[in-house]
Design a protein that fits this description.
- By secondary structure, the chain is of the alpha+beta class.
- The chain is built from two helices and ten strands; from the N terminus they run αββββββββαββ.
- A hairpin with a 2-residue loop joins strand 6 and strand 7.
Length: 138
């Protein structure tokens, strides 16, 4: 191996090593939250996402809904949970409605609890909860 090749590999290794373990980390504690989300008693279908917005305006956590209405909140790619305290929950449909429309029986959910909705659901997150229930109603 010549000197130029050695220096190139050395620099690449040094740069690569610098970024290992540099995933963003929240500067505050998070509370792990798992549960089920329903609308008028029916589990939300896959395709919906919940967004937990803390009252202090910090970075929100999100939770994609699984096929049975279940979810697990994540804050960053490497951190699970929600910032403790008062959180508004906003619900949205992941796909553009013209490509994959919101199921008809859940259309009122987005109108009421979506980003431009008429109501907000607020919850207090204080402790780890593996059976957290989010119950949206008309």
């Amino acid at each position: 191996m010549n000197r130029r090749t050695f220096l190139t590999y050395s620099c690449a290794t040094l740069v690569g090593a610098t970024f290992v373990g540099c995933a963003p980390k929240a500067p505050y504690d998070l509370v792990p939250i798992k549960g089920v989300a329903t609308y008028n008693g029916k589990p939300l279908p896959e395709g919906f996402t919940l967004q937990f917005e803390n009252a202090d305006g910090s970075r929100p956590s999100i939770a994609k809904i699984g096929p049975d209405g279940s979810f697990e909140a994540i804050h960053t790619a490497s951190q699970k949970g929600v910032k403790p305290g008062s959180n508004a929950i906003v619900v949205y449909w992941n796909d553009p409605p013209e490509v994959n429309p919101v199921p008809e029986e859940f259309a009122g959910l987005v109108k009421k609890y979506g980003f431009t909705g008429t109501d907000k659901m607020t919850v207090d997150i204080s402790k780890k909860d593996a059976n957290f229930k989010v119950e949206f109603v008309d």
